[in-house]
TrEMBL record:
Transferase among keywords: no
Domain HTH tetR-type: residue ranges: 37-97
SUPFAM superfamilies registered for this protein in UniProt: Homeodomain-like
Keywords: DNA-binding, Transcription, Transcription regulation
Source organism superkingdom: Bacteria
Residues in the DNA-binding region annotation: 60-79
Transmembrane segments: none
Protein name as annotated: TetR/AcrR family transcriptional regulator
One Pfam entry name: TetR_N
């Protein structure tokens, strides 16, 4: 049974669609690329909505075009099937997620730890608000093949780059010897991902103070000077 929609989940899917309302029937005066972009955004939002309520295995192209209010012909003009649409939806959703996290860590006089903690909290909040999509992208999608796994690794690299960028921005304020190597940042992102994996697999909400504190401990532990680990 799917979880009831949350305000944040509804806002997230609405943002995917943007202002791309259904196009009126009949001849159109809009440029061809603008029409295609409108359809693309509606299909991505439709896929996200279908995945939210039905999961990956049970979502069909018929579900997507119904949610998107486009024809199957329009769908196949843009995507060659369910997986290509899934990957496009994944990329669009994670671009939006990164924007959500970036807004949470915006420089505003807070310390490095306060900014990073706000980013981790925002990420967990979003995962908790959209359990259906989170389950698809974090639990189900890794088994969808090498291309899907490549997209997932790309997202992990983006999150790791954000963490290292934040550490670099506060380098002068960090204790001597404390740094965040890019490879270590990848490990931290993997650890935070596993926290969400375990929560979703157990049917639990990943957005809890305990998981937020644990994610922060993973990061702080990973940033200890190497000589303290010998």
């Amino acid at each position: 049974m799917s979880a009831p929609p949350t305000d944040l989940q509804a806002a997230f899917i609405t943002a995917l669609r943007g202002d791309a309302g259904p196009l009126p029937p009949g001849p159109r005066s809009l440029p061809r690329d603008e029409v295609a972009e409108t359809h693309r955004r509606r299909i991505i939002a439709g896929m996200a909505q279908a995945l939210t309520t039905k999961g990956l295995a049970h979502t069909t192209i018929a579900d997507v075009v119904r949610e998107a209010q486009v024809s199957r012909r329009t769908f196949y003009e843009l995507y060659d099937g369910k997986i290509s649409c899934l990957l496009a939806t994944y990329d669009a959703c994670w671009e939006q997620t990164m924007g959500f996290v970036e807004a949470a860590v915006a420089p505003d006089g807070r310390t490095w730890q306060e900014r990073v903690n706000a980013g981790l909290r925002a990420y967990l909040q979003l995962m908790g608000a959209m359990p259906g999509l989170a389950r698809v992208f974090i639990l189900e999608m890794p088994s969808s093949g090498p291309e899907a796994q490549s997209h997932i690794r790309g997202v992990h690299r983006e999150f790791a780059a954000l963490l290292t960028r934040l550490a670099d921005e506060h380098r002068d304020a960090l204790p001597e010897g404390v740094t965040l190597d890019p490879l270590v940042a990848i490990g931290v992102v993997g650890g935070v991902n596993e926290l969400v994996v375990h929560a979703l697999a157990a049917g639990e909400n990943p957005d809890t103070p305990l998981r937020e504190r644990t994610a922060m401990r993973l990061l702080l532990g990973a940033m200890q000077p190497y000589d303290t680990l010998r």
